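Morning. Coffee machine broken again, so started the prediction first thing and wrote up yesterday's gels while waiting. Chain of 236 residues, entered below exactly as on the submission form.
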Amino acid sequence: MKTPHIESNEFDVAPIVIMPGDPLRAKYIADTYLKDVKQINSVRNMFGYTGYYNDKRVTVFASGMGIPSIGIYAYELYKFYNVETIIRIGTCGTSKEDVKLLDVLLADNAYSLSTFAEVFGDCYDHFMPADKDLNDKIESIASSKNKKIVRGNIITSDIFDVYVDHEKNLARYPKDIEFIGLEMEAFGLFYLAKLLNKKATCLLTVVDSKYDKKELTSEERQTSLNEMIELALETI
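Came back before lunch.
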């Protein structure tokens, strides 16, 4: 069936979805890594593609920015398109001195002050887990390829942290939880996966650090993003 936001037929979408925020990054992944690609969505320019990676069928579908946007697309994909697994891939900032620019992070849990779960399903939890088995698989694949990943808890914020007082914003979060990164979508994805008995996780590339203000070149950024993309695709 088609939804208000997705024009695909049910059989157009694979059970596993790689979900970047940026629609053009979805197109880049499809053009660069997939074979026999079919574009399956262009509504609101939120591009989706289905194709094959190493003979495994996979869909790449953009989420847009923020919990409300990923909430729409993840819910519809899980609920109406029989998607079982969504791996979010994106960028993030960090306030950890030992987490470096261009490190790839793997989220075990996402903490948020958002009311998304409360409004959606009367859930008052602020801490949402990724799928542990999926994360263990990603970690194992990374290890087999000698790829470094940093695994831990992340913050999902309703605001772009650069625009506000960073320290004041961080002070709102629990002091007894160590956070390795800050982004804007994972909590909503993890909540929907929990609600609908599906699987989800999140891989992030660090592009902003409190401790390192180096200007990244486009080549540096793209190389690191490619490592994250390839790790997500290998997981399928």
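The longest strand covers residues 199-209. Going to sketch it on the whiteboard this afternoon.
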